[in-house]
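Issue 218. Parser rejects a valid record. Input:
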Amino acid sequence: MRAVVAVLLLVTAAHAALWGLFQEKQSAPDFRGTLPSLSYAPFESGHTVADVAADTEKVRTDLRKLSTLTKAVRLYSSTEGNELVPPVAAEFGMKVTVGAWIDKDANRNNREIEAAINLAKRNSNVIGIVVGNETVFRGEQVPLENLGSVPEIGVPPEESERILREEAQRLHDAEMQPDENSSSGLSKRAEAIKWAVAENNVHRLIKVIQRVKKSVNVPVTTGEIWNIWRDHPQLANSSDFVAAHVLPYWENFTDKQAVDQAVDRYNLLRDSFPGKRILIAEFGWPSQGYNLRSAVPGPFQQATVLRNFVTRAEAIGMDYNIVEAIDQPWKFFEGGVGPYWGILNADREPKFAWTGPVTDPNYWKIALVAVLVGLFMSLPILRLDRPTVMQALLLSAAANGVGAWVATVFSYWTTHYFVWGSAFALSLGLVLLVPLVLIAMARIEEIAAVAFGRGPRRLIGKSAALAPATIGENVKFPKVSIHIPAYFEPVEMLKQTLDAVSRLDYPNFECVCIINNTPDPDFWRPIQDHCRLLGERFKFINAEKVQGFKAGALRIAMDRTAADAEIIGIIDADYVVHPDWLKDLVPAFADPRVGLVQAPQEHRDGDRSLMHYIMNGEYAGFFDIGMVQRNEFNAIIVHGTMCLIRRAAMDKAGGWSSDTICEDTDLGLSIQQQGWLTHYTNVRYGEGLLPDTYEAFKKQRHRWAYGGFQIVKKHWRRFLPGASRLTPDQRREFSLGWLNWLGAESLGVVVAILNLIWVPIVAFADIAIPDKILTLPIIASFIVSLVHFVALYRLRVNIKAGQMLGAMIAAMSVQWTVSRAVAQGLITEHLAFARTSKGGLSRMSIEFQAFWEAVIGVLLLIGAVVLVVTNGYKQVREIYIFAGVLVLQSLPFLAAVSIAILENSRINEFAFWRNSAIRTAELIGLRPVSLPSVAAPSQPVGSEIRRDN
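Output the parser choked on:
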C-alpha cells in the first residue's frame, strides 16, 4: 500500500508540475501611459439597452475607474442612460465623443439626433459627434423623414422625389453591368448592385451628418468600416474627420497580423484623404469566443494585440479609440465573441496588465482546482484490494485527467457570460456529461484491473473447485433438482437438452421439465414420452394456464421438486450440458455460506451465419470479462441458465418472483442481499442456441434491459445504508453496472437526439455553439470505450480479431433497443414476457429491423454535413468538432443498420466467403479447385411450428 500511496502522490505532483510547465507567458511591449479613448456603454453585467437605463451613481463608479485608464470615452447612443455620461465624465476631466444611433426607425433616429445635439451644446467636454455606427455596413437605409433640417417638417415632397429618382438610377445603371465574374467571386453586376445600394445609403447618411453639423460647433462624422470610407470617398468629404473601424478579427487575420493590418489600413486612409484627420474609431480583439478562420480570440491574444497596437500607434502618432472599455454580455447576438471585447470584464476588473509578461491571473487558481479534484478522485484507489503499481498509476492518471477537465469547466464557467438559453444548454450538457465521465472512469478501472491487476482470485477453475469432495465411500453428493422451463420450444431441441442431462456424471439428481402455456400436443406430448423413456429421474409437467411468465412455471416446478433436493439447477430448453457440470461445481456448496454458483452461457450454432458468428463473440465478452470482474466483489449477475442455487438461499430470498421479466437476475440479487456468497466460473459446461434472427436478438436484449430497469426500481431502496446485507463493494458494482449498461446506452441516445435538435441552431442561427468542454469529453469517452472493448477482448476473450470487430458492431447495434427499453421502463410497470426464438425455425420478419436506427443514424450524418457546409466560411473549430461528434454518435445506429442489411444479404452465409476465396484462388492461379456442393439445410419436423410470443 505504501507503493500505491507513493504513486498517487507522484502522479499528483506530476500533474501540478505539468500545470507549471504549460503555464503560458508571453512578452509584449509595456504601456505606462493613458489611452486616448475607450468605447463605453453604461450598462451592468447581464443588462441590455432594452432592459434598464443606467443611473448616475453607477456611471460615476464606472468613469472613476476608467479615468485612470483613458482620457476620453466614445458613446454609441445619446439616450437610454447614455445622456448621463458627459456631465459625469466632466467631473473626472474626461472628454466624450457622443453618438447618435441610426437605424430604420425614423422616430428613434430623431430622438437620437436631437439628444446628441443637446449633449454637445450643454457639455463643453463633448469633443465630437458620431452619427450612426456602421449604418452603411449594416445596410440600414435612413428613412426619408430624417433627412430634413427640421425634424417636424422632414424632407419636402419634391426633394424626396429627387432622392428616390437618383437612387433608382444608380440601381438601374448597376443592373446594366455585364454578368461576368470579377476577382471577388461575384459577378460584375452583383458587385455593382451591392455598391449602388451602399451608395444610396451613404447619400442619405450624408444628409443627416449635414443636418447635425449645422446645429453644433464640434466635429461631426459617422463610424464605418475602413473599406466603406475607401469605396465611398464622398462620405469622407462630407465629414469633419474619418472615423474608421479596423477590426482584424472580423477580417480573419491572426493576432500576429492584426497590428500590421491596422497600420496598413490607417496609412491607406491617410493616403486616400490627405489633410483629413484619420481616427481609428474602433480597434480591439476579443478575449473569448470562437475562432473565425485564422483569427483566434483569447485572453493572451487580446493582451498582446492591444499592447502591441497601442505601442505602435503611439510611436507613429495615430489617433485611435479602443473597443471597448467593459465587456457587454448582452451582445450574444454578435457571434461567440460579442460580449468579450472589453479590457475590463463585466465586474469591472482588469483582464490583463499593461506592463510585464502577459499571464493568466487566474491560472494557478484553476491549476489548484485541477490538482485537488484529481487527488480527491484518486483516493478511492486506496480502497482497492492489493492494487498493483501500474494499476494505481493508470487510475490516478485518469482521475487527474478528470480533475483537469473539471478545472477547465470551472474556468469556462467563471470567464464566460450566459443568457438563460446558453446557461441552460451548458448546464444540461454538464449534467449529462457527469454520468458519461463516471462510465468512462469505470471502464478505465476495468482496463487497469484486467491489464495490470493481480488476476482473479475467486474464480472457480476447471482443475480447482473450492471444496473438492472427499474420496471414498463417505463422499457426500447433495441432491440436485434440475429445472427446465419450456414454452413452445422445438421438440428435437428440447430432447437434446434432456438427453444431455441424462448423461450427467453425478449420482444424485432429478430433472423437472415443465412446459407451460403450450396447449398444442405436438409440442408437449413427445417430451412427455421422452421423459418416461429417460427414467424415473425425469419428471414432466404440462401446465396449460400459468400466470407470471417463466417465473410462474418455475414456481410450479419447485412444488414438484423432491423434498431432499438441496440444490436447484436451472437450464434453458436449448442447453446441452456437459457431463461434469454438477461434478465440478456442486462441491462449491460445501461452504455453507455459498448460496449460488453460476456458469457462463455458450452457444453451439455460432457457425450458422456471419451474423450468428459475431453475435456469439458479443455474448462471450460479458461472460469472460464483466462476470469475471464482478465475481471478485461477490456481485455477479445471475443469468438463469447454467445456474446452481442452494434451496435454502432461494427460499430465504422469497423464491421466483414475477415482479420483473428477468426473474433470474431478480432472484440472484435478492439472494445476495440476504448475505449469501456467490461464485462464478468461466469454464463452459454447456452450449445453447443463439437467437434465430436479428429481430430475436434485439427482442432478447430489450427484455434484459427492461427487466434490468424493473429490478432497479424494485431494489433501489435496498441499496441504502443498512437496508440489506449488501457490502459497499456490491452496491458499487451493481450501481456502476446499471449505469454502465442502461445509463450509457440511454445517455448515448438522449445526447445524440439533443445534438441533432441543436444542429439547426448552430448551423443557421449561429449561436450556442457547443464548446470543447462539452464535445471533447464525448469523443474521449468514445475512445475509452473503444480501447476498453479491444483491450479486454484481446486479454480475456479467446476469439479472432475479425470476430471481435463484429462483436463490437453487434454490441453497439443495440443502443437504441436498450434505450427504448429504459424509456418504456420509466413510463410502464410491466411488459409481457417475450420468448427468444431459437432452434432455426423462426422466419425473418419482412420488416426492416433497423428502421428507426437508420432514420436517426442518417439524420446525424446529414447534420454533420450541414454543419461542415455552413461552416465553410467561418471555419469555427468547435463546429467541426461538433460535426465529428455527430458522426461518432451515428455509429451505433448505423451498426444496427449494417447487421439488419447483413442478415438479408448473401454475404451473411459462410458459403459465400468460402466460394469467393476459391474463385479468387483460381483467378490468381494459385491452384485449380472445384466448388464444393453446399449441403441442404435441415428441415424442421412437421410439429415444430414457429411461435414468437
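Fixed in the parser; the record now loads. Residues 728-765 form the longest helix (38 residues).
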